[in-house]
Amino acid sequence: MAPLETDFPAVRACIFDMDGLLLNTEDIITLSTNKLLERYGRPALTRSIRTQLMGIPDSTNGDVFHNWARLPIPREQFARESTELMRAHFPNCEPLPGAEKLLFNLSRARSTSSGAKIQMALASSTKSHSYKLKTSKPETKRLLSYFQPERQILSDDPQVRQGRGKPAPDIFLVALQTLNPASDSGEKPLSPNECLVFEDSVVGVEAARRAGMRVVWVPHPDVAAEYQARQGDVLAGRKRLIDIGDDWQLGRNDDGWAECIPSLEHSDYEKYGIDVPL
């Protein structure tokens, strides 16, 4: 096993998830799902089921949800009606607390190691059509404008291999590739450990750890409560909700590569070598 790294370089790039981190999409998904459950006389999502579904692809969490819900309709019909409800509500998405201030500050910030501007990218499991709906309001459109279009990597981006979504590291490594060509002339290429990933999902943290990047985990309050006793495993990327092998990519508990904060309002710039002008 490799020795622990304790002397981290200053961060030169920040990579963000979107759903449940920058935008309140997880609450909207829950609202839509509960409306559909009510339509068929079923109880609302419990905290435990909700946390098992957050950030997990439908192909993986389908059995968990449908075994619990015991719906009187075929899965295909539920999926169709659920998609219709979510698409109707996604245009109501709003930025989460601290998101706009953090992106604004980072857009002006520089790395203490090189003095170069902090680079930023988006690495989201959402697809292009849903992304347009979620960012249709002026305030959400403005929020996502902090990311240049070529640095907005979505799950259906052709650069991300099919079937290699989070917790695989691919989407974060693609995001890193989009950032490197923009480095100032003479600057050395960005290395993964100079990237700080902001994530809300358990599989997202694992994907970032597999990519060799540092992580700030900002879980939904329900997720934080559900995983309180297992936070160390989450931060190490070792919850393994989806088994993809390659265990050598995972971290170790308390190895210093990841931390958990209650909201983006609690972001610590100095800790990561990020200098924000007053």
**Total helical segments:** 11
Lateral arrangement of strands in the main beta sheet: 4-3-1-5-6-7
What structural category do the secondary elements indicate? alpha/beta
Largest sheet: 6 strands, parallel
Q: How far apart are the termini?
A: 43 Å
CATH architecture of the largest domain: 3-Layer(aba) Sandwich
Name of the CATH class of the largest domain: Alpha Beta
Shape: globular
Number of DSSP E strands: 8
GO molecular function: phosphatase activity
Protein name: GS1-like protein
Pfam families: HAD_2
Organism: Aspergillus brasiliensis (strain CBS 101740 / IMI 381727 / IBT 21946)
Task: Briefly summarize what is shown.
The chain is α/β, with parallel strands linked by helices. The protein has helices at residues 25-39, 47-53, 58-69, 75-89, 99-108, 128-134, 138-144, 170-179, 202-210, 221-226, 231-235, and strands spanning 13-16, 110-111, 119-123, 152-153, 195-199, 214-217, 258-260, 274-275.
SSE topology:
Layout: E1 13-16, H1 25-39, H2 47-53, H3 58-69, H4 75-89, H5 99-108, E2 110-111, E3 119-123, H6 128-134, H7 138-144, E4 152-153, H8 170-179, E5 195-199, H9 202-210, E6 214-217, H10 221-226, H11 231-235, E7 258-260, E8 274-275
Organism: Aspergillus brasiliensis (strain CBS 101740 / IMI 381727 / IBT 21946)
GO molecular function, one term: phosphatase activity
Pfam family, one: HAD_2
